[in-house]
Specification:
single chain, two-stranded antiparallel ribbon
Length: about 325
């Protein structure tokens, strides 16, 4: 227990990529561009989904939730990251670290559940088209969205409390660019087996089970689409689900690598790049994925940018 500080530290040092100053300069530019794309792209999706009556459907209700979530997720991480990248100061206050961990972890967990809910919506749209309007009624949509948000932040609260009850080593140097559970566990000066077990349980609840449900949903969707007699119907079914499935692969693929795959199996900087991908890159790509593959969103964006007076008539 030597070198342990049982009191709350004044703050933490986020090491990030400080051992590679040239890389930090490049990351400062890249992350800044990605953050602007995230803000513009996700705000645009929220606006077109709200302003265009044609997009007042369950699919775009959940897509608006996902866009708002990505805006909050990146904003809870990126400003602090940019501040640390642009100068020698890499610190974050204790309260700031607690807040960042709770908010980012809550939003990340919420996204896992929300992507599962979106897969359920697509399953009903493709496999139960005649009953879709009855099943996905507005009250159920609100309840499903509420379950995603509440469950994400409840799980985050439990993990945040567990992490910050640990006695921490006196150096308080976090080998990451953000306050994240795996990195904070590493600076604890006690046996962390219990917390690692709790993290494994949380990973199963918020990563493995949602991903399993999504894969089952898409298995049913693929079966339903292949049974369609119309080739055009099959094409539209796969096109409708393609964007969501691509987002699932990008988000869950990197998340599994960070939270489930043992970190000892790859270099430390590799895990930082994976974290960077799902916290910065994926939220900036989501709007592009949905707009490039979705004619309805592209049409609504053109109408919004051109301010076509006929928009309300469509």
């Amino acid at each position: 227990m030597k070198g342990t500080n049982f009191s709350h530290p004044a703050g933490f040092i986020l090491l990030g990529f400080s051992d590679q100053p040239q890389l930090e300069t490049v990351l400062l530019l890249v992350v800044s561009v990605m953050y602007v794309l995230t803000l513009v792209g996700n705000t645009a999706i929220i606006l077109v989904s709200y302003l265009n009556p044609k997009l007042h459907t369950p699919m775009y209700f959940f897509l608006s939730n996902l866009s708002f979530l990505d805006l909050c997720f990146t904003t809870s991480i990126v400003p602090q990251m940019l501040w640390n990248l642009q100068g020698p100061t890499k610190s974050i206050s204790y309260a700031g670290c607690v807040t960042q961990l709770y908010v980012a972890l809550g939003l990340g967990s919420t996204e896992c559940v929300l992507l599962t809910v979106m897969a359920y919506d697509r399953f009903n749209a493709i496999c139960r088209p005649l009953h879709y309007g009855v099943i996905m009624h507005p009250k159920l949509l609100r309840h499903l969205a509420a379950v995603a948000w509440v469950s994400g932040f409840v799980g985050s609260m439990v993990q945040t409390i567990f992490v910050f009850r640990l006695p921490l080593c006196s150096h308080h140097r976090v080998d990451d660019f953000m306050c994240e559970v795996p990195a904070l566990i590493k600076i604890a000066c006690v046996n962390t087996a219990f917390l690692e077990h709790e993290l494994s349980v949380a990973s199963v609840l918020y990563v493995v089970i949602p991903l399993g449900l999504i894969l089952v949903s898409y298995g049913c969707i693929a079966g339903g689409a292949l049974r369609m007699r119309s080739a055009e119907g099959r094409r539209r079914a796969f096109a409708t689900c393609g964007s969501h499935l691509l987002v699932v692969i990008l988000f869950f693929g990197t998340l599994i690598s960070v939270y489930i795959q043992p970190r000892s199996s790859y270099p430390e900087n590799h895990s930082k790049f994976l974290t960077l991908f799902y916290t910065v890159v994926t939220p900036s790509l989501n709007p592009l994925i949905y707009t490039l593959r979705n004619k309805e969103v592209k049409w609504a964006l053109r109408r919004l940018l051109l301010r076509d007076p006929r928009q309300g008539e469509m």
